[in-house]
Amino acid sequence: MDVNRFHREGILTEGRRGNWVWSRDSEEVGRIGYSFTQSGLVLDYRVRAYGSDWEAVMETVPITYAACNYGGTRPYFQCPGYVDGRRCGRRVGKLFSGGRYFLCRHCYSIAYRSQSETGYDRALRRANKTRMALGGEPGTAYWIAPKPKGMWQRTYQRHREQIERDEGQADHLFLSKYAHILSREEREMYFGSDAH
Ligand SMILES: [Zn+2]
Fold first, then answer.
1. Which listed residue, of 13, 45, 80, 176, carries a Cα 20 to 30 Å from 96's Cα?
2. pLDDT digits (tens, 9 = 90+) for 87-110
3. Residue 164 Cα, ligand 1 centroid: separation in angstroms?
4. What is the residue extent of each domain of the chain?
C-alpha cells in the first residue's frame, strides 16, 4: 500500500470511500474497503489465517504531512503497528500486509525475528558464532574482528568467508520470505528484473 499512489488517486480526501483492488495478470488477488475520516484512513477487510475462518478487521491508519525537499508537503502513513508491546508510529510511505494488519517494513521484520527459529535465524546465528570466535561482536553492524594472534592467515580467511556466506544467505532468505510484501520495484531490485 503506497501512500503516494493513494494521494494521486485522490483517496486522502475527507469523505472519500471505496474499494482498493490489487490484481495480478488482470485477476483480482486482494481487495480492501477504505474510507477517509478525520482520524485517518480507515481500512476494512477480511483475513483468514491458515486453517481458520474469515475474520473482519478494521484498522485506522493516521496520515501525517511533512515538508518535502522540493517544497510543498507530502503525505505519510503513520504505522499503526504494536510490536513487542510498543507502538510503532513510524512515518512511512508504504505499508505491507503479511498477516492480519497493514504494517511498516520495520514492524514486519521485528515480528519475523521473534517467530520460531527459521533458516534466516540459523544462518545469522552461525555467522555471529564465528564472529565471536574471532573475538568480535555479533551482528552485521560490526566489522569482523582482525585476525587473532596465533591463528593461521588461511584459517582466518576461511572464517571470514564463512561469515560472509552465512550473512548473505540470511539476507536472501529474509527477502525471499518477504518477496510477496515487496513492491514490484523492490522485487526487481533484490531479485533481478525477471522476478515476479
Ligand atoms: Zn511499524
1. 13
2. 888 888 888 876 678 888 777 776
3. 29
4. 3-114, 119-174
